[in-house]
Write a structure and sequence with these properties.
Strand content: over 45%
Structural class: mainly beta
CATH architecture of the largest domain: Sandwich
Order of helices and strands: HEEEEEEEEEEEEEEEEEEEEEEEEE
Number of helices: 1
Helix content: under 10%
């Protein structure tokens, strides 16, 4: 049942603060192997598990989740429809009147928010028409509370209409800024029915959304065309007419059940870098032969013991400066002549490189 198998300059990289790392040991389910990797054969690398729920207990873990309790489309979502047993989180779909609806469904939302990383679940959808089951991410805020110039996104790893057990949709939505826009919608057809267990994954990076089904890429979307914000993870099953084939709930199939084996979030090691000496983004330096003191600091590492490699270099300018130690956060530079130089401090963390830059006008001229 449980399967333990599982860049150049990033000018706007958003990182989970280092202080959050104190909570990581508590965020990983004790039943998870901390060395667990994404599902076997999934073509991602460099990740480590930082959050998980294996659903091996007998109740919802209250410090990880809260219930979805709205009334939407054809069903009201009730806390009582969410249970954990035999290693699964289960959402029941029932014929039951509540809040003006004829059916009840359920769902839950993580208390923790996430951003860049790899999201994964193993799940199965219910049989019988009329149910919309999903594994998706969105900040839990009312749209009306977010200003038009704010940022609010939705990422749909799987949306299945139960009338078709061989089809699901991947999607991204930019709800803010501006008006709603769908981005990169894909219709996925499978050879095996979705009312059997399958593994669904999403890799979210500053550049791209990559969607996976049983370890294979099924869709890719350019993530640079919309702004990003942190998101909650949602697991939901509600009665709805969202598929072309659905006209009503198949009451002969009731009650139905969606089941989730686990939810896991993996993260790569990241950090950013900031040049702190000089403190200004552009400075004047009087003499090419006088050493200029340079110092950078590592900002927001995902681990306190993270040790990125460092390299100071010229981005452009009239000749190459000489750095006392180009691999140290603290160094000095002398210049071959007067002119304008752009100086980079670049750190490398895994496969990612992140830079900060200052401009130095040497000798009081701007020639280069």
């Amino acid at each position: 049942m449980k399967t333990q198998s599982f860049v150049s300059l990033l000018s706007a990289l958003i990182i989970i603060p280092a202080s959050a790392q104190i909570d990581i040991i508590h965020d990983i389910d004790p039943d998870s192997d901390p060395k667990t990797q994404p599902f076997e054969s999934t073509p991602v690398e460099g990740y480590r598990l930082v959050w998980s729920d294996e659903f091996n207990g007998t109740e919802i873990i209250g410090n990880k989740w809260y219930y979805r309790t709205d009334a939407k489309l054809w069903s009201a979502q009730l806390p009582a429809n969410n249970t954990v047993s035999d290693g699964y989180y289960r959402i029941a779909g029932k014929k039951q009147k509540s809040q003006g609806k004829d059916y009840t469904g359920g769902g839950m939302i993580t208390k923790k928010m996430f951003l860049y990383g790899y999201y994964e679940t193993r799940m199965k959808v219910p049989s019988g028409a009329g149910w919309h089951t999903s594994f998706w991410m969105m900040r839990d805020n009312e749209l009306r509370d977010i200003p038009l110039d704010g940022t609010h996104i939705e990422l749909d790893v799987i949306e299945n209409d139960s009338s078709d057990p061989y089809h699901y949709q991947t999607d991204a939505h930019r709800w803010r800024p501006g008006t709603h826009q769908k981005i990169g919608t894909r219709q996925i057809t499978t050879k095996k029915p979705l009312d059997q267990f399958h593994v669904y994954g999403l890799e979210f990076t500053p550049q791209k959304l990559t969607y996976f089904f049983d370890g294979k890429i099924v869709s890719e979307t350019d993530a640079t065309v919309f702004p990003h914000n942190s998101v909650n993870i949602w697991l939901t099953c509600l009665a709805a007419k969202l598929g072309k084939k659905t006209t009503k709930v198949d009451e002969a199939a009731l009650p139905v059940e969606a089941a989730y084996d686990y939810v896991r979030f993996f993260q790569r090691d990241y950090a950013t870098v900031e040049i702190v000496t000089p403190a200004m983004r552009e400075i004047s330096h009087p003499d090419p032969d006088t050493p200029l003191e340079l110092e950078a600091k590592i900002v927001d590492p995902t681990r306190q013991d993270l040790k990125p490699t460092v390299f100071w270099s010229r981005h452009w300018g009239p000749g190459h400066p000489t750095f006392e130690d180009p691999t140290s956060l603290k160094t000095t530079a002398t210049f071959p002549r007067s002119g304008t130089f752009d100086i980079n401090c670049t750190i490398t963390v895994g496969s990612a490189t992140i830079s900060d830059r200052i401009r130095v006008v040497v000798g009081g001229t701007g020639n280069h």
